[in-house]
Amino acid sequence: MVQLFLKKGREESLLRFHPWVFSGAVGHIKGTPQEGDVVSVHTDKGAFAAVGHYQQGSITVRVLSFEPCSIDASFWEKALRKALYLREACGLAVAAKQLDCFAPLAMTDSSRSSAREDPLAVTPHPSPFTSCYRLVHGEGDFLPGLIIDIYADTAVMQCHSIGMFRARQDIAEALLKIYGNRLVAVFDKSAGTLSSKENEGAPDTYLYRVADPRGEVVENGYRFAVDWEMGQKTGFFLDQRDNRKLVEHYAQGRSALNLFCYTGGFSLYALGGGAKLVHSVDSSQKAISLLNHNIYLNYPLSTVNHQSYTADAMEFLRDAAPNDYDLMILDPPAFAKHRGALHNALQAYKRLNAAAFSRIAPGGIVFTFSCSQVVSKVDFRNAVFSAAAISRRRIRILHQLTQPADHPVNIYHPEGEYLKGLAVYVE
Ligand code: SAH
């Protein structure tokens, strides 16, 4: 194994279990590591500090272990099992020994068609059942550069580092070992997260597939079609599960506007919570098509007052008449992908929120989010504060929101806390 030696005193952050070694901390390297190789990291005096994936760039090593160990099949199996234990502890995944509980999802074609005829059979609210969750959340699961989402019978893997990409077959095998025949497919969706130089132009592909995946999940009893092959990120935004539940709680009798709706997560919950009207807006036609399908899956008899619009969210909001809505959800894509974009991103959050605050009906509630990692909680709160001041409305914070338990934050890696939100009451 190639050995990498740090400059004097630069092991401090590793001693505090921070999982990255920056290029500036590297003194010298014994050997010639290839991109994605497993290397060991040592202090300038040669004491062992960590093992991790090597990659040229500002983050030179992403740490996999602070103890000497081999990164082999048993490493991946153990790491994924630990990740699953946490999801079990959170009540998201059924205990490993009861994994057959996935069965309730496997609705037969005949039960499906009878569900269509009987709206009560598909009324989503009574079932707390959830068949989708994030199994691995990068540094939050001590596996920097790796995301794995479970969509009922399918695992979707997204690699953000060359090392993880090179290990993808081993990781897939560990998944199969843990889940057995409960998984029918493992899909790698890394083409969009790695450059073609990094993955040698490898397209997204099934690493394993023994049957047609179901392509549908249940979240808190709501049914969603998920298109991991063509959809955004891994196919679905699992990170808004708890916040969607809160929207359901506040929706009764309200007129809701769901901006940046993607496939309709917040819209379905608002309808389920008793909203009298929901308008959903997204600039992606593909997302809107899937949203319309999801509405049909859950409310097949068109008993709900829902309208979807393929449009720019800001333009739609500008054209909305004041007081049209008394519940708004603003869940834009990350406005800042890197530090350099921070200032413009904060201005964009301010404009979006100010437009919402100035149009929402008195007594309205706005759920507003930022998923930009480089925007801190304080930055975001200040942007919303400025927006409130521009609108000159009396605004109070009801809830401070974040990512759910299956997107855990490694306490030694606070950068992992990326989702920030506020639910505010506007007089
Ligand atoms: N709230 C969603 C996730 C939103 S992701 C959920 O719960 O699933 C952000 C969405 O914003 C994406 O679907 C993207 O297509 C959409 N988007 C990006 N720019 C937009 C714009 N200018 N106007 C409207 N939608 C936009």
Keywords:
binds S-adenosyl-L-homocysteine, 427 residues, 25% strand, 7-stranded mixed beta sheet, 13 helices, alpha/beta, 6-stranded mixed beta sheet
Largest sheet: 7 strands, mixed
In terms of per-residue confidence, which ranges show pLDDT below 50 for 5 or more consecutive residues? 96-127
Shape: globular
How many helix segments?
Answer: 13
- Strands in their spatial order, largest beta sheet: 16-15-14-17-18-20-19
- How large is the share of residues in beta strands? 25-35%
Give me the count of strands: 20
Taking the alpha carbons of the first and last residues, their distance comes to: 63 Å
Describe the structure.
The structure is a single chain. Helices cover about 30% and strands about 25% of the residues. The protein has about 425 residues and is an alpha/beta fold. The strands form 4 sheets. A 7-stranded mixed β-sheet has the order 16-15-14-17-18-20-19, sandwiched between helices. The structure holds S-adenosyl-L-homocysteine. S-adenosyl-L-homocysteine binds near residues 232, 260, 281, 282 and 312.
